[in-house]
Amino acid sequence: MQLLDASRELAIRPIWRLGFRPFFLFGTAFALLAVLIWLAALSGQVAWQPAGGWLAWHRHEMVFGFGGAVIAGFLLTAVQNWTGNPGLRGRSLAMLAMFWLTARLAWLMGAPLMLVIPLELAFLPVVAFVMGRSLWRVRQRGNYPVVVVLTLLAVADALVLWGLAAGDDALQRQGVLAALWLVAALMGLIGGRVIPFFTQRGLGRVQPVKARPRLDWSMLVGGVLLAASFASGLGLQPNPWLAGLCMLLGVGNLLRLARWYDAGIWHVTLLWPLHLAFAWLAVAPLGLAAWHLGILANPSLAQHALGVGAMGGLILAMIARVSLGHSGRPLEPPRAMGAAFALLNLGAAARVLLLPIAGSAALWLAAVCWAVAFALFLRHYAVLLCTPRVDGRPG
Predict the structure, then answer these.
(1) Rounded to whole angstroms, how far apart are CA atoms 338 and 354?
(2) How far is the C-alpha of 187 from the C-alpha of 196, rounded, in Å?
(3) Closest CA to 20 of 89, 84, 119
(4) pTM of the prediction?
(5) Is the N end or the C end of the chain the one with fewer CB atoms within 10 Å?
(6) Alpha-carbon distance 54 to 40, whole Å?
């Protein structure tokens, strides 16, 4: 275990002291701006085209831009707790964040692909390498699957970029959907650890929920297999075998959620959004199963249940808690965050449940709810992420 030199660490500008700081800040700001830009593009209010066009940009950036930033911030922070060794910080962290930011700008502004592709390809492999190196040093095998999923995400990103270079929209879609379900697998892995733990701590339970490793691992393997079906193109067509896999994933996540549930969560602002996000993580594969069986006409509804409800909801709930804990503050979020969590779930419901009925009105409602939710987070957390811990400790 490496010991931190407090004076040296405190000399680092606060935003570069730990991974959650820049990536939660930049990622949530991007989540807000990207949806507003997407709405402007749909309305014909934007004069330029990003690389690959607006649909390709929207698909890619909500998963790899927004999702990739927050995943990196969470894992680069968590690995310090997991291993007891210092996380990425200072100039190295700043350089990684600038790679991410430059790639976002290059893609959005329609830069030449010879610039966009290497910038985009650099980010996830570096995060996976940093994570893998830290875990290998202490031989922490239990977290190796995290590095495997990160590596697979990088492969999915490469598939999207291959499709972008070849002008092949199908390849791009395969890569993005594979990545989305890899993120789902990662959320199931991490959420399966932290949600019962946070629930136990938040409600003052004495006995933790008994672990079910076989169930947890089966959900991870099933999620990776589903992602592989999209990467291969098999998942883009209705398939009864994939319907069975999706049903197993949905029922398995519902079973996990039921084991963690306690009525007291509805009185704790930092708990109920976690449980609701995990509920969306069950709804999404069940919706996809319905599409594979011909019950649901549009698979996009299931994908958005995952992207908006599960990914967006879990990210917002997690970063609200992690930011408080790692800045030395009590785990009591600003009152406005309750409204932010509610708005995000309302937006998910509008995008998934109301869209077939209300059309564009539901789309606009979903986008506005998403934007306001992340604007509230930035309003109350941006300064926190850029200032030192209140207890004077490094980090």
Answers:
(1) 23
(2) 13
(3) 89
(4) 0.95
(5) N
(6) 10
309 neighbors 283 (Cβ within 8 angstroms) = yes
Helices (H), the chain: 6-10, 20-42, 54-60, 68-83, 90-108, 113-137, 144-166, 169-203, 213-232, 240-260, 272-292, 299-304, 313-325, 336-349, 355-358, 360-386
Q: How far is the C-alpha of 366 from the C-alpha of 344, rounded, in Å?
A: 8
Q: Domain coordinates of the chain in residue numbers?
A: 6-386
Could you tell me the CA-to-CA distances from 213 to 41, 57, 149, 219, 244 in Å, in that order? 45, 38, 18, 10, 21
Residue 180 neighbours by CB distance under 10 Å: 25
Count of CB atoms situated within 10 Å of the CB of 148? 16
What are the tens digits of pLDDT across the range 346-394? 999 999 999 888 888 999 999 999 999 999 999 999 999 999 999 888 7
pLDDT tens for each residue of 190-209: 999 999 999 998 898 867 78
Residue identified by tokens 């030199």 is: 5
3-state secondary structure of 144: helix
Domain 6-386 superfamily per CATH = Cytochrome c oxidase-like, subunit I domain (1.20.210.10)
Residue type, 281: L
- The Cα-based distances of 190 to 71, 197, 220, 278 in angstroms read 11, 11, 10, 11
User: For residues 331-357, b (16+ Cβ closer than 10 Å) or e, as one string?
Assistant: eebbeebeebbebbbbbbbbbbebbee
Residue type, 364: W
Overall residue count recorded for the chain in this entry: 395
> Rounded to whole angstroms, how far apart are CA atoms 189 and 194?
9
Q: Write the DSSP symbol of residue 46.
A: -
